[in-house]
Amino acid sequence: MEHITLLIGIVIVTALVFDFTNGFHDTANAMATTISTGALKPKVAVAMSAALNLVGAFLSVEVAKTISGGIIDETAGIRPEVIFAGLIGAIVWNLLTWLAGLPSSSSHALFGGLIGATIVSVGFDAVNADKVVMKVLIPAVAAPLVAGVAATLATRLTYRLAKGRDEKETAKGYRAGQIASAALVSLAHGTNDAQKTMGVITLALVAGGVVAPHSDPPMWVIVSAGLAIAAGTYLGGWRIIQTLGKGLTDIKPAQGFAAQTGAATVILASSHIGFALSTTQVCSGSIMGAGLGRKGGVVRWSTAGRMVMAWCLTLPAAGLVAGGAAFLADQGDWGVATVAVLGLAVSGGIWLVSRRKPVTHDDLDEVGERQPAEPAGVVTAALQAVAPPPAGTLPAPVSPVAVVTPEAGRAPAAAAS
């Protein structure tokens, strides 16, 4: 019993470490566009987001139930070692994608880790495949698309309503709206992502016989998970904020307001029904949608492509790492100790590599200058062809035809009409 109690304690601490990495990995979801448009200073933005993530953790436990008794059958002989291995897989993938500055899904890293470890240790029967499809895979595909379409339509509507008004004046109002919508996204993030850690800890308590199956998370679990994700959020995942804030598209205040409002609506609705979706994918989809919704806006499809590739790899990659960790952990105490040492070594190595070229909040003011220009692709051009022009924009005059003179080195001259 003492061994089980110690192991459960290790699992709880590891789950809170994952929650912490989830916080700084996903700070960009709420605050990237708010920081990039200048609505809030970076440190103020992450402090506000951290506080609201903590509040959001207390608003619901539906997603926690999906984790603790949904995708994994908690009565199928799941042991704390399995959960520990799953968490190691999720943490390693979170840190790797953070190092690369890719806004991948912490949620899917957790799901992949738990599923991979469970399959290796217990078998496929312990995974509720129908729940995985209905509450993980379908939302993973649908949520960013729904959020992206909503943000595109909201952006076009926003510019249409502001038509004829001074852009600088309307920008002030939109920045204020961005602060409110960013607060809503942070609150929504707490209701969704903090609960995932609550569910994992509850699953460990059930596996160790501490609480009965199908129990709600105890209050101390809710408090500790909320504090861990808030602390991680306050540190700020500046690398990923850099990617979402300017690397994906250039966001104006009106677009930021539309993107964040759409994302918050999708996340809160999913939390209410217990869908454990990826807030990262929702917010990324909203930002791309907002980029497509503005006439003249450009989505950097190379960056978007790398993000989507990371999304597709997250579940299997975290599952493979967790599966290997579960195989070692099944060997006994020495196996669990080996997994812990390897997890610490890999995490420390990633941190040391990140120090070679650190990214801080001071770098965010220059991020736009460092982003290479990318021409609009076929998709962007086609969608923007029917978009209304931004408010106050006049049609561009027709340029005279340019004629290149035969003399080498001379500037082109305008043809006489």
TrEMBL record:
Keywords, alphabetical: Membrane, Phosphate transport, Transmembrane, Transmembrane helix, Transport
Membrane-crossing residue ranges in chain numbering: 7-24, 44-61, 82-101, 107-124, 136-159, 219-238, 308-328, 334-353
Membrane-topology annotation of the record: Multi-pass membrane protein
Main location group: membrane
InterPro entries, alphabetized: Phos_transporter
Subcellular location: Membrane
Record-level GO cellular component terms: membrane
GO function term, MF aspect, one: phosphate transmembrane transporter activity
A Pfam family it matches: PHO4
A single BP term in Gene Ontology: phosphate ion transmembrane transport
Assigned protein family: Belongs to the inorganic phosphate transporter (PiT) (TC 2.A.20) family.
Name of protein: Phosphate transporter
Organism: Streptomyces eurocidicus (Streptoverticillium eurocidicus)
Phylogenetic placement of the source organism: Bacteria, Bacillati, Actinomycetota, Actinomycetes, Kitasatosporales
